Fold these 3 entries.
Entry 1:
Amino acid sequence: MQKRSYLTLIGALLSLGQGLSWAAPVEGEIVSVDRDALQVVLRVGGADRKELAASVGRGDAVILEPGEAVRGDLVSFGEGYRLQTVWPNDPVIRGTIARFGDQLHKDTLQRGSKVFRGVGEYIPRFALYDTDGSLFLSESLKGSYAVINFVFSRCANPQMCPAATARMVELQQMAKEAGLDDFKQVSITLDPAYDTPGIWTAYADDKGIDTSTFHLLGGPVQIVEDLKQQMGVLAEPDEEEIIRHTMSTALVDPTGKIIYRIPGSMWSPAAFLKQVEKDKGLGTKD
């Protein structure tokens, strides 16, 4: 009944034609993508399916593919449509993320006052969406050192997320120059309702992030909330800053154990590389 009502609503809105402004959640299939024009053709509806052209953000234009199932918000304005807040809609991936999320939430509740994982403990298991909309599992970090923090794309405080991301980009370059092929980086969004894979893709392009080893992750709100608690980050909505939050950057060894942590955003990228060298037994004597 809920699905039928949803499709009936979309059909009714589309039948109104262009010229009337409205916004509604939508599920559909990408028919084609014009990456230069930042436009897709989207197939929506039930038995009486319709195809419509909609503009998209530049990040979505990069990662969306014909035949891909998506969900998002369809906005009508003037003489056209815009598809925004776009998420993949693959049922297998959604089910995997939900299953991991349920396990993570149970673990958060069971840990109670000991929810924070300090140095010497292992990071929790989780599943989220990667920059390209693919499934990212925490298990994929096994076998590599990983630096993990929390930021969000709309953060405008130069001393917070922008500063942390700049250091993460510098750290990525330093790791490449050092020839570390077992080194990864992860930034998890503090703004999961906004930071979709497309938003993160545009952010990565703006910041010069190589997403092959630096993963920008997002997904369900509850999963992010549980990860924040377990990794020791506090955040709350704020009228001026969108989100007011603390910062913490953790280094995880190839087994998934937290071996180093620095609070705040004004840390030295070299400090993390020294910790990796120390853990590998490569550190030089003073």
Entry 2:
Amino acid sequence: MKKVKKVIIPAAGLGTRFLPATKAMPKEMLPIINKPTIQYIVEEAIASGIEDIIIVTGKGKRAIEDHFDNAFELESRLLEDGKLELLKEVQRSSKVEIHYIRQKEPKGLGHAVWCARKFIGDEPFGVMLGDDIVTGQIPCLKQLMDQYEETQNSVIGVQVIPDEFTNRYGIIEPDQQDGRLYRVNNFVEKPPLGTAPSNLAIMGRYVFTPKIFKYLEMQEKGAGGEIQLTDAIQKLNQSERVYAYNFEGTRYDVGERLGYILTTLEFALQNEDLRYPLMDAMAEWLSKAGQPTIG
């Protein structure tokens, strides 16, 4: 039985929601406190037992490669200054086996995954989207990998969302349920409001058999005129069973501005050095704004 050892992280998007900041900086490098968002994704992959990571990049994404490379001058300076804890943090991002491939045209998520087909070969693999940070006792990807080992079929990570947001996500039409695991009848990409078959949304974590590439190879355009990964999953589900797993953990949406701000605030409140100064600053701001204070 082949185990999941490789993961694809698509990072070729233009980041238009964060312009003008992303005109020169990849959106994946926008920091949550002091760590780029993509590093949270990479650390989850490592904690899940992944051995090889391929990041699919696009034009203007060189900063991602630089971040995960060695920085000899910086590391030497930190060592000389005795800043060993900071040195350890800097080195964490460079001691990973990471590969890169460029998506030459912005044809969508499905196409970005397809670009990494030669790296994956004939093996099961994970896909992790950088717009979603997930925290929990067991890494989200590891939960899906465990389900893959049980079922030997592709497994898609899902969570329950409010009905009014179902038009923003890929949605599953569930069939049989076994605890958190679902057999799925259909996968629907961003259904119009009022037409969604459930409120179980696809949340940026996947484990696939390599057969998914057969359907991505068709290069068929879907919603938004792009090659959609959800459409290929739907076709895969017609030839071999694809499961959905309602994973445990807290998911943070950092792919849009409000979600990014709220994530930054929550992570800051979880930080011992920042929690109380931040709460004091927020209370002072609310007082000046004429709003009731927190707590």
Entry 3:
Amino acid sequence: MERPAWAPRSIDISVPSVSRIYDYYLGGSHNFEVDREAARRAMEFMPGLPKIMQANRAFMRRAVRFAADEGITQFLDVGSGIPTFGNVHEVAQQASPGARVVYVDHDPVAVAHSQAVLAGNDDVGVVAADLRKPREILSSPEVGQLIDLNRPVALLLVAILHFVEDADDPYGAVAELRDALAPGSLLVLTHASYEGIPLSPERAGGAVDVYKDIRNPLIMRPREEIARFFEGYDMVEPGLVPMPRWRPETGPEANDGPDDEDPWTFSGFAGVGRTA
């Protein structure tokens, strides 16, 4: 297999990567045949996966604009993946010039590619760290340099928590990050769930098994378990809802995502909470 220039030598390109599979669903070019094969296998069970990912991205962009409108100029995106068109820093810096963004991912491909894309943007940093180890994120030089934890921060956990098993204490990790943030900070979150998927859980389970096979189990939590991540936050209206239902836009920005009436886009939940 030919190794493209953007793929660091240290990574095994014969093993599928969650962030490259996500990139493929979004129509990106930073993925290999092994990733596309895993993605196609999952889509045999859940053909709407690309629509779900697009709805995720559209929600993320709306939430970043919302945060900027609320006066937040600092963004911590954990599990950020491979930066594609319309990423957090582009949306944030367009809405609020000088906004600072730190991307965090534990996938070396995502980190290396982010560094290449973001070279020369002094208001953006990239950290190789894992959501399961919040201290490593908070004590990283990039966070120290770019994020003032005494001022409100928008913490983005978009399509990441469903890759953290209960045994790794995702609630503890989210609480530790919350406790490090100033009052008025926001938590922006999406999470996969069997609720809302226009298929039986048995059929959708075939796609979940594909992720298990590539050693990245996908944990489908019910709504009440997802709501628990917002403990210590006040929910921003309209609360924890299917992604297209979170402050849908009208006017020119409305074409930002997939068809909002597509039944697949209602799979899983999205919400924003604010610390008191």
